[in-house]
Amino acid sequence: MTPGFPLPSSLKVVPGTERAQAAYSYLTQFTAADDSRFWFYNSMHFPEPMSAFDMVTAEAAYCALGAANTRVHSLPTTLGIDHRIINGRVYIGGNAVTDPAEIARRTEEFQKRAFYYYANWEKLHAQWHEKMMCLIRDAQAFPKLELPDFEPLVHVHAGRGVASNHYLLDIYQKTLEGYFRMWHHHFEFLLLGYGAYLTFFAFCKKAFPEITDQTIARMVAGIEAEIFRPDDELRRLARRAVELGVDGEFQRLVSSDEIIETLKQSGTAGQAWLEELEASRHPWFNINVGDGFYHYHRAWNDDLSMPFACLPEYIKRVKSGESLERPIDKLQAERKELIEGYRDLLNTDEDRVAYDQMITLAHRVFPYVEGHKFYCEHW
Fold it and tell me: Does 139 lie in the same domain as 200?
């Protein structure tokens, strides 16, 4: 995100776009009361101007984030964030809790809630996974609706009395409800996961003043997370293309549609690779090519040109003798060496006990921190 700055209410919209600005909800318009607050342009999540239609993605996310911060986990020093929009850009500002008595009250609540999640992480995460899969299955089950020139005569004769455009509205509303619910699930573990890692991070920075951010990150490296799986599937497909002898069909300037059509005509080997592709696509190619906040950001399954563009290079690496496997064992060995090495630098048993507890918790929560994105983008 770009550095924060006070954004005056007198800031003008781009001339000629005043009516477009009015299309955004009044709750997201800057007012004079916002002049004294600190605002960030959230270019990390919303790097491009957003249409009014797309802005529901920001509304859903910040609604769920505020609920998680404020009422679910009761973070001691924050009541979530507000967002404002001007010229299609999303700005965010925090709602800090500064009263010591209120911080103490919220801290007591936070401990009862967060510590329960940490103590029951695996069980609750399994429930989370099933909730997300249920949301995905519900969305996939929505019928594909179209508006016919005329309502089917069978509907008229049956006296159905409801035209097809109503069902478009019905599915749209169900889609929005699922999207808002997905964001509540998104934040169920996320803040606690980041919190556990950042607590360990802060401990390391204090105990080892010269340690780098990257070194601390390497202490939680080597995890297995679903977010890596789409790329793992691409690597697997590259290996299978070489094994089946159809690797020559994958060329940089040939479209994915052309390659698929060629493989259909390539006998049993081509058909075998296409079957492997189908096995990888569902569900692993439901990953988004962007951040998922814009209507024109599509999944791999919507446009295979993105994953197919990676295959020639992967095939080239396979043929040169590379395995393409992620070096999990190496990363975990390096992780263990780093953890043990820095632990030996601690001076007291008390610090070593705290260090052990924090790194153990970080390892438990980090697969979710990295992996949750796949399910949210899948939805």
Answer: yes
Taking the CB of residue 38, how many other CB atoms lie within 10 A of it? Answer: 13
Domain boundary, last residue among 110, 145, 179: 110
The last residue of one of the domains, among 92, 110, 128, is 110
Token digits of residue 102:
């209120």
Tell me, yes or no, whether 24 and 70 share the same domain: yes
C-alpha torsion sign, points 51, 94, 129, 135: negative
What are the pLDDT digits (tens) for 110-160? 999 999 999 999 999 999 999 999 998 999 899 988 888 999 999 999 999
Quote the tokens at residue 245: 């002898």
Structural domain containing residue 134 = 120-208+345-378
174-194 pLDDT tens trace: 999 999 999 999 999 998 999
Q: Which residues of the chain have pLDDT under 70?
A: 1-11, 371-379
Q: What is the DSSP letter of 143?
A: P
Cβ atoms of residues 273 and 250 within 8 Å: no
Q: Residue 255 has which token pair? A: 């479209």
Q: 3-class DSSP state for residue 44?
A: coil
For the chain, what is the domain count? Answer: 2
Q: Are residues 125 and 83 in the same domain?
A: no
Determine the pLDDT at residue 352: 97
Task: Please tell me whether residues 106 and 24 are part of one structural domain.
Answer: yes
Burial of residue 95 (number of CB atoms within 10 Å: 0-12, 13-18, 19+): middle
**In this structure, are 22 and 105 located in the same domain?**
yes
129 belongs to a structural domain: yes
261 in any annotated domain = no
pTM assigned to the model: 0.85
Query: DSSP state, 89?
Result: E
Contact 182, 135 (CB under 8 A): yes
Tell whether 145 and 182 lie within a shared domain.
yes
* Radius of gyration of the chain measured on its C-alpha atoms: 25
CA–CA separation, 148 and 88 (whole Å)? 34
